[in-house]
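Bumping my old thread because nobody answered last time. Still need a sequence for this structure:
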């Protein structure tokens, strides 16, 4: 891993952000929702530890390369925890409805994320969002989440937004980044990616693009693997903001 001061911002033109866990604190929400659903629909009414849910979901999601990730995960939940009186389509819709309400009212940008984005925009960088989240969730953030809207509107600020619906192959496949570079006719050396998870960092490296890992506690199980792969690491966006202010484009 290199020191952040070694990053040559002057050669970068395209700054790419992941969403969940990177720009916003949202990963833990899914843990809570899954815990509640497992307890409600499992035959034994079991209450699974949140960290266990996180670890098992991450392991399963690493195996999903194509298709509807949310539907496949619902199938997994039903089989893994012996959920009864519910099918994968209904469970997927239920998870989506539960999380939508929380995303609209409680989710916020990570500290200093909005400040950094606005500064990068001011300096003329092209900003892109490349996330495995859904268009519907992006719509929630840009239409209903007042906490986030008070700081910036994602649709108005980012020049390009790709979601899970825009690609066939999920991260760690680099398709979403390759598609973005093709759109702009960009070279990997002109791009910089912010990611929180091992899957995201691996996708960045598979695209041969430098990556900054922003700390997220829900990625701690993969911390050693992340540290082996990532080019740079920050605990808070203020670290990168200070770099930008020191070395403007």
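Sorry it took so long. Here it is:
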């Amino acid at each position: 891993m290199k020191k952040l001061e070694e990053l040559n911002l002057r050669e970068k033109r395209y700054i790419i952000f992941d969403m969940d866990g990177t720009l916003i604190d949202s990963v833990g929400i899914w843990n809570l929702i899954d815990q509640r659903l497992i307890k409600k629909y499992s035959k034994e009414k079991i209450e699974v530890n949140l960290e266990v849910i996180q670890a098992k979901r991450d392991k399963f999601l690493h195996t999903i390369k194509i298709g509807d990730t949310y539907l496949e995960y619902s199938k997994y939940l039903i089989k893994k925890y012996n959920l009864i009186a519910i099918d994968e389509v209904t469970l997927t819709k239920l998870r989506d409805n539960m999380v939508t309400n929380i995303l609209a009212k409680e989710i916020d940008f990570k500290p200093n994320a909005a400040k950094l984005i606005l500064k990068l925009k001011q300096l003329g960088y092209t900003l892109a969002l490349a996330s495995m989240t859904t268009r519907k969730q992006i719509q929630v953030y840009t239409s209903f989440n007042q906490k986030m809207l008070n700081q910036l509107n994602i649709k108005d600020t980012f020049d390009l937004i790709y979601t899970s619906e825009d690609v066939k192959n999920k991260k760690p496949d680099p398709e979403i980044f390759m598609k973005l570079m093709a759109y702009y006719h960009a070279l990997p050396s002109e791009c910089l990616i912010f990611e929180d998870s091992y899957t995201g960092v691996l996708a960045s490296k598979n695209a041969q693009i430098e990556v900054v890992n922003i700390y997220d506690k829900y990625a701690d199980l993969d911390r050693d693997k992340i540290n082996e792969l990532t080019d740079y690491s920050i605990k808070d966006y203020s670290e990168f903001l200070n770099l930008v202010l020191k070395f403007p484009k």
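The radius of gyration is 18 Å. Let me know if any region looks off to you.
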